[in-house]
Each structure stands twice: as structure tokens, then as C-alpha cells.
């Protein structure tokens, strides 16, 4: 007892779901969009075999209720049969997108696959080739599309002599009764569990690096701009006595990326017309294409990994900021200007390897203004505006009051799994953009009104 274990932690595969891309993508990119979630799961299984893991953990939302199909189910079975040949078991909990009571398996599962029950916490013991106990895996599946039970409280083990691993699909929000209400501290206090393999949050995060380790592996293949960056899974190696080693294994063929371009970054070369603006964006595109897509910050890349050999390309949203005379042209003909800019960028970059597909262009530019430093010297009101902006973004109470003043059209507690279509989603990035734009409008109006 108490030996080393090595495993794959993955979650939120949403097998068979499509990327949420729109527009007139060429056939090659359209075909790719249909298969990338499948390819990501193949790479997870490839990694399990390559690194000779003891088992694979899938922490919920293997399927997507909108796209669960016969083909997806059969594909999953075939991949697990590959793992079965290598004596690698697969342990799965069902999440809010694939709850157990909603739809059963369409095919017989291989004997190496175990799906945790939805009515109670189950414990699976893992033994090595010599028959020695090396790990316990605890889990419980969702029984519906929301789950209000505090499952974690029933994760109990007889001892800590082997690695005890809990699988949980949760938002880690004790006030949210849709996705297993609990807090980070609730899991930390369950210190007879060595590793919490979490699912539901689509960005990879290690929330607690010491005992017990608490981690989200993230989505293996992003499907929209809310799932930016390189997706993947974790390779984990641990013993009961020591903190685990965690490596990131990239699995995404396509990377979603928002790119902000300040048109006045180079004050001597602010674009004056649409041709200059298009060239500015194309130069930025070249910079992106000439670099390897970075893995999420703070993670180590698994050794002997073939990233980025299988990387196919980017889906990009360009966000134009800064100030220049071209702002008036963009505003006067915004709809047509953006449409033509998007189409031109798509045509210029679609055949690149890797490809770079422009999904959209967002205009947040403004008219040229005097330098804020000189404005503050002329009138102290501009210093006061700057201070209010700073407080709006840094002071917790000030920010809370601001959000309440924005009105009920905004949803500030963004739930990526249950979007309220009747409201705008107010994340931190959007709030910063609103405040910055408000600051610039106030300054513009003061200057126009000659209140200097």
C-alpha cells in the first residue's frame, strides 16, 4: 500500500458538440469544426497509453445533451476498448450535461469502464499488477440537469494509506444549488482526500496546490470565445505522502483567441483609412501565426508531447481600441465597414497553415483626445474622473454599487452552463470595457462643451 500512481484527469469533453463558429468558413475548416471534440478525446486516450497510466478519470459532461448521438456513443466505446487492451480502467461521473437518469448508454460498455451511481457515493479500489491496493476513487453522478445535493460530505475513506481521489462536477459556489453547492474550503477540510479531480469550469485551474490538491482540468477543446486558449487534460503522478506532480497535455486542434489592437499604439502610424487598418490587423495576425500557441500560464508541459504538431489554427475576434481619425469613418459606416473588414481578413488568411479565421471585429475606438496628463494639469476634474475609474475597478464596495446601478439588463453572476438569454453577461472584462468607454465619453463631452 501507499505506492505511486499515475493517472489522467480530464473533464467537460462534450463529445460530439460543434464549435460555435458562424460565417462562411471554407469547407476544410467547416469539416474540422465537426470533428475536433472527437480528436481531443482521441488525444486523451493516446496520452493515457503513451504515459502508461494506472487509470483515467472523466469528471463529468462527457457528452453534451444537445449533441449526444449514436455516433458519439459508439466512438466513446471504441476509444475505451483501446484503453481496455492496455489494461487501463476509466472512471466516470455524469455531469449536468449528461445526467444518468436522462439517457442510458446506447452500446454495451467495455469492462474497463465504470460509471459512478447517482444515488450514492461509490468507492472504487484500484490495484496494481501484483494485486496490491494503490488508490481509491470516490465519485457520484448527477441524476438531473441540476444537482443540489452536497455530495462531497459523503466522500469518506477508511484510511489515508493509499491515494484517495475524489471526482466532483461542481462550480465551487456554496450558494449555487444547480451544480453541487460547496466551497473551496469545504473540500480543503476533507483532508482524507488527497486529490480532488473537478469538472464543470472550462478553464484549467489548480485552486489548492498542497494537500489536498484541488484542480479543474478544463475543457479539452474550446467551442467559443468563453473557452479561449489551448485546452487539454492533466497527467498526474502522486503518492499519499507527497504533493503530486501535474503536467498539462494539450489536446485542442483549434484555439479561440480574442486579440486587442490599439490603433494608436504607434502614434506615428495611426491608420488613416481602411487599407491601413486592415494592414495593421494583418501584421498582428502574422505575429500570432509565427508563435507556438502557449499552454495555460502556470502549467508544465508533459514531456515528449507532440504539441503543437496537431494544431490546426485559430478562430479570432479582433477588438479595436485606441483613438484616431479613422474612428469617425468606422462609426459612420460601422455595419458595412466591419462586414467588409471581416470578409477581407477571412479571405487573406484562410489558406494559411495553421489557418487564422476571423470570426468578428469589435470596434471600441474613439476620437483623438489631448493627452490626459495635460488635461489634468489644465483642470482637476480630469484627475477626479481618473480616480473614480480606478475605484470602480478596484474597490469591492464601489464596484458592487456600480454593478447595481447598471440595471437589471446585466447578469453579473455569469453561469457559463446556464446563460440567461434575456440579459447581457457582465464578466470582469466587459465591466472594464464599460467603465473605460464611459470615462472616454465623459472626457469627450467635457472637451466638446469647452468645460476646460
TrEMBL record:
Pfam families found in the cross-reference section: Metallophos (PF00149)
Name of the featured protein: Calcineurin-like phosphoesterase domain-containing protein
Origin: domain of life: Bacteria
Domain Calcineurin-like phosphoesterase: residue ranges: 6-204
InterPro entries: Calcineurin-like_PHP (IPR004843), DNA_Repair-Maintenance_Comp (IPR050535), Metallo-depent_PP-like (IPR029052), Mre11_N (IPR041796), Pesterase_YhaO (IPR014576)
Keywords of the record: Hydrolase
Annotated GO MF terms: hydrolase activity
PANTHER family from the UniProt entry: COMPONENT OF ATP-DEPENDENT DSDNA EXONUCLEASE (PTHR30337), PHOSPHOESTERASE (PTHR30337:SF7)
